[in-house]
């Protein structure tokens, strides 16, 4: 039973995903994670979900070409790739996590 639970948990875990930045502060970035949370649902609700990305000293910031960046190079509306420090499930109840890397994919997303 425990093995089945571990396998199920591992299968639902993410190591990275693409998203857009909602807001930025000194130690965290708030991102849109609605697509991740609603992925695979037959009837996804219309609620928008935000996730909080905790930034620490070891978080790496870079662009898609692997050029180093700083937090100041990012802004609301940027399309980014989040690489989690450890793979984990992201759900309505689990929307805060630490990241290893934040990669700038596109400066601004046209809505």
Q: What key phrases describe this protein's structure?
A:
2 helices, DUF3221 domain-containing protein, globular, 14% helix, 5-stranded mixed beta barrel
Written account of the structure:
This is DUF3221 domain-containing protein. It comes from Paenibacillus albiflavus. The N terminus is likely disordered. The protein has a single domain, classed as OB fold (Dihydrolipoamide Acetyltransferase, E2P) (Beta Barrel). A hairpin with a 7-residue loop joins strand 5 and strand 6. It has a 5-stranded mixed barrel with strand order 1-2-3-6-5. It has 111 residues and is mainly β.
How does the SSE layout of this entry go?
Layout: H1 2-11, E1 14-24, E2 28-32, H2 34-38, E3 50-54, E4 60-63, E5 79-88, E6 96-106
Parallel strand pairs: 3-6, 4-6
Antiparallel strand pairs: 1-2, 1-5, 2-3, 5-6
Protein name: DUF3221 domain-containing protein
Helix-strand pattern: HEEHEEEE
Provide the CATH topology: OB fold (Dihydrolipoamide Acetyltransferase, E2P)
Strand content: 35-45%
Shape: globular
Give a quick account of the main beta sheet: strands, pairing sense, barrel closure: 5 strands, mixed, barrel
Q: In short, what is this structure?
A:
This protein is mainly β and about 110 residues long. Helices cover about 15% and strands about 40% of the residues.
């Amino acid at each position: 039973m425990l093995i089945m639970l571990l396998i199920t948990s591992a299968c639902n875990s993410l190591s990275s995903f693409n998203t857009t930045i909602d807001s930025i502060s000194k130690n965290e970035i708030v991102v849109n994670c609605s697509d991740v949370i609603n992925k695979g649902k037959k009837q996804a609700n219309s609620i928008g979900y935000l996730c909080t990305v905790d930034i620490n000293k070891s978080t790496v910031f870079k662009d898609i070409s692997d050029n180093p960046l700083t937090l100041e190079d990012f802004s609301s509306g940027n399309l980014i790739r989040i690489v989690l420090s450890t793979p984990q499930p992201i759900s309505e109840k689990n929307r805060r996590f630490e990241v290893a890397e934040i990669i700038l994919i596109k400066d601004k997303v046209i809505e």
